[in-house]
Every structure is written in C-alpha cells, then in structure tokens.
Amino acid sequence: MTRFRARAASLVALALGGAIGAGAVAWSLLPGQSARFVEYKAEPMDVPTAITVAADGTVWFTVDPSAAIGRVRDGHLERLPTPGPNLEPLGLGAAADGGVWYTDNAAHAVAHMSRDGVVSRFGLETPSVQLARLSVAPDGAAWFAEPTGYSVTRLKDGAFTRHVFSSPRGAPYGVAVAPDGTVWATLQGDNQLLHVTSDGEVDTIDVPRRGALPSDIAVGPDGSVWFIEFRADRVARYNHGRVEEFDVGEQGAAPSGLAVAPDGTVWFAMLRAGSIGRLRAGRVERFRIPRDHARPFSVALDRAGNVWYADISGYVGRLEAASLRR
C-alpha cells in the first residue's frame, strides 16, 4: 500500500459512527455566502468512499467495510447488498446499462452491479489483489489501477488485458479514459503519469515536482490531463508536454478526488480541510462543508453541474450548482 492509500485507509477506519437517516439535510455555507449543501447520512458503520453519477442521474457510491453498494435516487439514500464486505473500495464507474463497475479487493475481483442490484464478479488470478481507482471507457470497458499486478488493466467482455509498466515502485492509483479511448494513470511511487495509447502502447511522463505523490486524474474537454499532487497540496495540468500547477491555498489540505466539468472547471475534495475546491480560469475557490469533522474523499458531477461527494466521516453530499457564485 502506498503512503497515500495508507493514510486514506486509516482515516476511513476512524470515520465510523452516526445514526441511520435516508432523508437529506440542507446546509448553507456561512453567513453572507450563498453556497448550499445537501447531505445524506449513511448507516452507522458505513464509510462512503468512491462516488459516480449514472446517465439517469442516480448517484452511486461504494461503502467500506459494509457488504453493500449505496445510491441516492429520487432524493432517497438506498443500500444494495453485495455478496461480501468491501475492503478499500476505491474504484467505481458508471456502466452504460445504468449499473456500476466497482473494485472488490476482498473477493480478488472487479464486479458489476446492475440497476436491479444483481452482482457479477470477474476474478483476478493473481495471488494477492490490491486495486485503486476505476474508470469506464466510451466502449464500455472498465479500466482500473492494479498495483499488485504492476498494471493498468482493461476488463472488456469478461477478459482482462494488462498494460504492465517496468518499475515495481510504480503503484498506480488514479485512472482516466479520454473520449478517444486513450488511458491516463498516475504512478505514485515513481512520481509519473502513465499513458496507454489506443494501440496499447505504454509510455510515462515524469512529474517535475519531486515527491508530489500524484493521485487522482481526469481528462478535460480540451484534452488536458488534470491530476492531484497530494503531498504538494496542488492540482496540476499536463498539456502539450508541459505541467502547470495550482496551489489549493491551504497547507495540509490533502486534495483528493477529481472531476472536470464540460466547461473545463475542475472540482476536487479537500480531505483534511473539510471543503470542496473549484479551479477555473487559474483561480482556486474553496467551499467549506458546514459540518464539524467533514472528510470529503471523492467527487463526481451530475448533468446539472451539482458536485456530489463521498465523505468518509459517514455522509454523501451535494454542493448545489445553482447556489454558487458565477
């Protein structure tokens, strides 16, 4: 496990407790500010970890360590049972059929849950399995980071295709698939970005800042590759062979999770700052969740531009687009 994942896992383990509540609670940010949050309380031992939004607007999230996948649909939080408990379920992506793909470390598998809650597992043959983030490609393939296989791996039609890199220190974490089918990933141990072309060729790009610990990654509408520099408290952009960095404005904020809107606005969580960050036109703004000990870990966008987040302290929330300053 990389140091980043170890830190995240320890926070997940500590963020237990709370009462069940399927309804939503709305919060305003601070006096004089308009940002509005709506939150859903998870069950007592549930730790929401990864989050995604399906085409029909359903919000799905993984739950550690419970035997369930969660979703918010029509304003209600639901839990759908899985065959066994999850273990660090960091990977999640919306499937074209309305269900989701998710990583299942405990079962040594990548799994698919249909919108009706039917689970299909696809087992990995390696003796040990540790999986990180997951992304679904335009062709329906599920791509995921597989540190124990030294690979960024594709699952399509029940078959795995591994794209192995040479360094055993690589520790892939984030994965993103561009509209043209090319795949980008972060290699934490080697401080690099990894690129898999549509022909399956693999190359790497060094991150200039030493020890940045690149984590989550996303591709913007203009083809720019955005990624988190976790240890440096920065969001970075790679484009045309150049890396540009943006300081999130708070030391030790622990940026985590990443989503890029159609207009190019970049959204991310700030795990230790209890906030959601917005980067646009080179400027970072922070929207603090008005609840003590908030720990947002992953983010996703819906079609209306609302920012959904999985909070490892036991919540799933939404920062409402209509309430934000333009």
Relevant terms:
mainly beta; five-stranded antiparallel beta sheet; 29 strands; four-stranded antiparallel beta sheet; Methylamine Dehydrogenase, Chain H; 326 residues; 1 helix
Offer a concise description of the structure.
Helices cover 4% and strands 49% of the residues. It has one helix at 3-14; strands spanning 21-28, 36-41, 47-53, 59-64, 68-73, 76-81, 92-94, 100-104, 109-113, 119-123, 134-136, 142-146, 151-156, 159-164, 172-177, 183-187, 192-196, 202-206, 214-219, 225-229, 234-239, 242-247, 255-260, 266-270, 275-280, 283-288, 296-301, 307-311, 315-319. It starts with a helix and ends in a 7-residue tail after the last strand.
What does this protein look like?
The chain is mostly beta strands and 326 residues long. The chain has one domain (3-323): YVTN repeat-like/Quinoprotein amine dehydrogenase (Methylamine Dehydrogenase, Chain H), CATH 2.130.10.10. It has one helix and 29 strands. It has a five-stranded antiparallel β-sheet, with no helix packed on it. A four-stranded antiparallel β-sheet has the order 3-4-5-6, with no helix packed on it. Strands 7-8-9-10 form a four-stranded antiparallel β-sheet, with no helix packed on it. Strand 12 and strand 13 form a beta hairpin. It is globular, with a radius of gyration of 18 Å. Residues 1-22 and 28-32 have low confidence and may be disordered.
